[in-house]
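During the practical work, I selected for study one protein's amino acid sequence and its backbone structure tokens, as given directly below:
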Amino acid sequence: MNSRIARIFEQLQQRGERALIPYLTAGFPAPGFTLPLLDALVRGGADIIELGVPFSDPIADGPTIQRASQEALAAGTTLQGILEMVHEFRRKHDTPIVLFGAYNPFFHYGLERFAGDAARAGTDAVLVPDLPVEECAEAAHCLSDKGLHLICLVAPTTTSERKALIAQHASGFIYYISVKGVTGARNSASFKLDEPIRDLRRVTNLPVVVGFGIARPDQAAEVAQYADGVVVGSALIDLISANRGEKDLGARVEEYTRAMKAPLIPASASRN
């Protein structure tokens, strides 16, 4: 599948860079914030953006993203509204968008209808954390039929045999969860990635990105030694929450994004 995601990873590989993939809860703290924040992420150097679809029952979300989802829902955020946001974003930007959310909203929207509307809006991929690989065939077919990737998750507890099964169904890239537990920034996290990612690369040629618990540039640098991309979510949501009333919110998000991207760029390239 010739896609924006494939192209971005190819371009990054040629430059020796790793992808920065920030996560943003759509509609948080209110729907009107989302497009300006997406703009700020692009200005800061985001290579791919995960746009979270809020849902009442959290799936793998820690307290930060749970609260963001609750606020977004209370503010009237809907899946249809999120697709409209993606459509508006795509008028200005080519940065790939991954919709990240529980299966329930996509199922109730209607899988075929959702896939078509998402593709027309400019979505590139969908990540559904509560959709096991054994049950993903219908969703994968609907999405691929419209040119969309189904991004698959691999956990630290995933066996080698199951990694191989997941790799058979994965598309776009594979998301490796760096730590056991739910999402959330961690001041100290031991990212033991060498062996599990080496094991994963034995069964897939897709890029491997790593998320959960990454909040600081030094953590991003550590993860980038092993992965093709780094996902940052809760720390970004915390930043937005703490500065939601500030006029320079966009500038602060842009600055944080740029700081997280910096260690993913080779020193020789950053001097040019």
About this structure: The radius of gyration is 17 Å. The beta strands are 19-25, 49-52, 97-100, 125-127, 149-154, 174-177, 208-211, 229-232.
